[in-house]
Amino acid sequence: MKQFFAFVKKEFFHIWRDKRTLFILLGMPITQIIIFGFALTNEVKNSKMAILDFSKDAASSQLVQKMSVSKYFDATTVLTNYQEVLPVFKKGKIKMILVIPQHFANDLQHGNQAHIQLICDGSDPNVANTLSTYASAIIKDFQTAIVKEQKLPYRIETDIRMMYNPELKGAYSFVPGVMALILMLTSAMMTSIAIVKEKEMGTMEIILVSPLRPFSVVIAKAIPYMILSMVNVATILLLSVYVLDVPIRGSLLLLLSEGLLFTITSLALGLLISSITDSQQVAMLISLMGLFLPTTVLSGYMFPIENMPLPLQVMSNLVPAKWFYSIVKTIMIKGLGLSYVWKETLILIGMTVLLFGLSIKKFKTRLS
Amino acid sequence: MSVLKYLLQKEFRQIFRDPSILKIIFIMPALQLIIIPLAADYEVRNINLSIADHDHSVYTQQMIQKIKSSGYFKLVNYSSTFQEAFTSIESDKADIVLEIPANFEQNIVREDHASLFIAVNAVNGMKANLGASYLQNIILNYNNQIRTKWIQFPPIPPQTNIKVSVSNWFNPMMSYKYFMVPAVLATLLTLLGTFLTALNIVREKEIGTIEQINVTPVKKYHFILGKLIPFWILGLAVLTIGFLIMRFGYQIHPVGNMLIVYLFASLYLLVILGLGLLISTYADTQQQAMLISFFLLMIFIMLGGLFTSIDSMPDWVQKLTWLNPVSYFIEVIRMVVLKGSGLSDIKNHIFVIIGFAIFLNSWAVWNYKKTT
Amino acid sequence: MINQNVIIAEGLTKIFGNFVAVDHISFEVAKGEIFGFLGANGAGKTTAMRMLCGLSTPSSGKATVAGFDLFKDTEQIKKSIGYMSQKFSLYEDLTIRENIQFYGGIYGLSKKQIQEKTTYLVEHLHLQNYQNSLVKSLPLGWKQKLAFSVAIVHDPAIVFLDEPTGGVDPVTRREFWELIYDASERGITVFVTTHYMDEAEYCNRVSIMVDGRIEALDTPKNLKKTFNSLSMDEVFLKLARKAVRGE
Hints:
The complex is a heterotrimer.
Chain A: H1 2-17, H2 19-39, E1 47-53, H3 58-69, E2 73-79, H4 85-91, E3 96-100, H5 104-111, E4 113-121, H6 125-146, E5 155-163, H7 171-201, H8 203-208, H9 214-242, H10 252-276, H11 280-298, H12 310-317, H13 320-333, H14 338-367
Parallel strand pairs in A: 1-2, 1-3
Antiparallel strand pairs in A: 3-4
Chain B: H1 2-17, H2 19-39, E1 47-53, H3 58-69, E2 73-79, H4 82-90, E3 96-100, H5 104-111, E4 113-121, H6 125-150, E5 161-169, H7 176-207, H8 209-215, H9 220-249, H10 258-282, H11 286-302, H12 315-321, H13 325-339, H14 347-371
Parallel strand pairs in B: 1-2, 1-3
Antiparallel strand pairs in B: 3-4
Chain C: E1 5-16, E2 19-30, E3 34-39, H1 45-53, E4 60-65, E5 68-69, H2 74-80, E6 81-84, H3 96-106, H4 111-124, H5 140-151, E7 158-162, H6 170-185, E8 189-194, H7 197-200, E9 205-210, E10 213-218, H8 220-226, H9 232-240
Parallel strand pairs in C: 3-8, 3-9, 6-7, 7-8
Antiparallel strand pairs in C: 1-2, 1-4, 4-5, 9-10
Helix pairs in contact in C: 3-4, 5-6
């Protein structure tokens, strides 16, 4: 046992002395949280809009005014004819063009009918759809303002309640994702590289003939990274609560335990990777492709899984991060307990055991 | 320049003999280009709906039918108590619960109005917002339907109606893939370029071959060119593979001139490789090189407009984007491929990238001279 | 008068912060000499050699290598020297031929010269059957001999060897030294550091560094007489005992 701890201590020194790596490992969660929390959002705001106003009367100016003051649009560019539309799109800044035909005010007053055209840059279909929805809503609003009365008969009113996240903060859905990502990175990737580095340098043989059992050696390498991971979890939670105002509604203890479980799962993954290659470069790239990519894309934290084609949905079930993400959301944001996450927890435990089993087998075959 | 010739010969031999590099160059693009665009789709569809119906009238049946046939919602639960319906949100089986009160139909006809209660799982704010507005829209339409049955409207509508028609250019099928594939390609090139360069040079540092080169008449600029050129060529090769996947795998026909993209990419690669070179001068081990590259690139890519639009970012972040080379490439590739933008449209981008290339490479070379 | 000394060092010093690694050493090496540079680990011999190769700038002092000033004509020096380090010399993922081709090429040999050298080297070292194998597949002894031969492929005035025979058996070491004798006879000066004392006996002259200074410089025979010892081992022990810096 004493030898084991001596080994763990040595590993700690390695990491501690490498200040650059340490700095990045601890700094990554902070940067991610800040970027996600303050810079990234799927909400559409301040989109550049161009106005093609053929009427230039009181009504059209009013409509344009309404668009400009809306937080969704930045309606400062004015065009004079249709020929300008394509070039302005090609320049890339304008996302939508509002076309108001001639006699706008006239049509509204005397015919009670008018026609507005919205030309969107469909490159980003999401943004295009969202913008046209918002623009249409503003136009409907404008229309309603003209209509005097508004108590229509036969009304259905809807009372909408946003559960768990009344202010619709984006942070609620990405903080759990960032946690999964950082844990995966610290536990899996770093551990696998540390082990492979030892192999590459040739010092693995030296260690293997030491009185310490080979698997204990490997575990000893993993422990410092596990601790780093938990430090990162703590950092992420602290930042989320105090900087982003994301609550921890459920049991903190349960949350941390699940975090520990996932750390071990990531560890097992890292071990598996280190058992199949001897080159650091390869270990890094497998980590990137096999861990980082699926965790970001298939875990459900950036893109909804139900939108993906079936094969990808199936693949996402194989990604441990997906289950962890779901668990964290349920505990942290919904405030529910073990009874709601036992299934996912069991799956994670199962994956961990399987991964450990596979790596042990691989290690044994390599050593013999 | 024959020294350079020999350096390049050695580099290319080493690169092609390294099985992992070849795998990376071919497998990584394929993987990324296949998985990401297929997975990346923010559109909200297949929203799971749970309904607690206390009325069971003709109106509710009609309304539910309308909701089901809209294509946005999937009815996963139909019960008579709210509690049961709500449990499905807690267990993530449903995203939205719609509660229809007792006497719904009666209230609309006799009391002139009725209320519906909608509870939305808002952990994912945007999905919740869109889901709720779709549902509201459908209900609104249904409301109008009921109304027109009871009231006949005269030819000139008594209330003003503005008809809005929307046309979407450049993306006829409104496919998110059109938007994502070029950008993923740009990201790919960025990752590969910096990683491979940084790792390669640091590996030589670790093994000791750089010292050996230092003793020979090979000058520092020879060495640096000997590293940059092979990866530059490789970068363009990966770009070509990516284009083939884009053209034949995704059927995306570029509207603009691909040579413009190649021109920009050639300049952009200088920036990216320069970054790799710079990182290699600050890293002592491959592990460090990888981490530093990863850390920096992650920030650049996230803020570069790949997944989320730059226009939505707060002002101060948008200004920071001017310093982010990745955002320029992503923008250019999207503009040329989807909209057919030409050289004059991107001339600002070109100037900026040239500026970056000069700055980064100068810094890298200066630092390299200092530390070896 | 043509100076026959290929290396002239005067007061060469290297200081790292507060640590004086090499303390004002002065010596001369004649053309064709096999000059052994001995010392315990940490004595400063590798640092001194790196300065002479142009890998490290001296903190003070002067030197001339192959007739060129160490500070002013570093580029010329590099063309005239060869180097073999214990950490690395050849590219493991290239073949024997490719390594020779590369080093020949960057030292400015013509294609014809490279071809000739390759044939000669491969025959001389009996590596004909392996010339297209990757260097990584060769046993250590062969790698070392090959590395030395490649280090002098351009017939430099001086070749610097940093602990070149580590990790091989005495027979192989002996064979390596045959190559060194060959080179010396051809007029190539060999500057070699080692901690194998028996190899010290093979050198024309030997210098022993202790704590950054040269404590002894003479032929092995004279050193043994001066220090009243039967072997270079004893000479070394007597000097090294005074050392303050160990490993």
